[in-house]
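Incident log entry.

Two folding requests arrived from the same account within the same minute. Monitoring flagged them as a possible duplicate submission, but the sequences differ. Recording both here for audit purposes.

Request one:
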Amino acid sequence: MAKSRAKRKREHLLRNSGRDALLSRGSSPSFSTHERMTKSKKDILNKRKHKHKNPYDHNAFDDRDFFMTETAA
């Protein structure tokens, strides 16, 4: 496989100046720092509700019933 550009630069620094870039990296904890949660039922239903709706389709909303004509009684 090909080497990445960053790996080639690290190897070049190690060859020419003797500086190892891996030593200047911070230490990471031995445990995962990501919080993993499954989706709640509300989140799943909300996604299902909005999945196929186009937010830019302004013609999808039918507002004809909103304006009612006045009828003389």
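Request two (distinct sequence, not a duplicate):
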Amino acid sequence: MGPDDQAPRTRGAYAKGVARRQEILDRAIEVFAQRGGSRTSLRAIAQEVGVTHAALTHYFGSLDELLVAVYRESEQSSPDDAADEAYTAEAPAAPNGPPSGATESVSPAEMMRISAVENREIPGLVQLYSSLVASAVDGSHPSAHAFVTSRFARLRDELAERVRDLQASGAVRSDIDPGLAAALVIAASDGLQTQWLLDPSVDHEAALRLLDGLLAPPR
């Protein structure tokens, strides 16, 4: 058997492996959407997912790596994309403002509010995210730490850029630091999300709208 004969077999095995991993991941998302992200063993999760412990270990290595993979896969879009889609679909044209579908005026707090609305449709994944953050802070879970740290950095960059754009248009106060404003919006959204998990009466959306008002220039 020559190299040309071996290559198709290798590609076929790889493709099957990718498909099998995705199949397991899809089932794991369903499980975590129901159960949340409470700490448990990889063996127990394998039983819930319906695969062997060896299979789960082969494709994901550790419980933290599985949790990160599940959350990454479950993220439908970035805050920018979510805000753009929701604004285009739902927001009417404001009097003397941008036409419907214009995304430049969507504030960082509004972007996080839209994401929060989507997240609350699947409370288990909100719990999973909270579990990942707790594991990252713990310091003994490198996969969770790398994921959460990278996510926060990406969100701060994206939201800070949006703040700069809004400052240039006069929609956000010019005397605040964009990076700090971005960090504040993320902290507020995540903290409100945690409060909502503990007490569903907490109005996450109204609180973020209040933050928008605080960041707006005086009229």
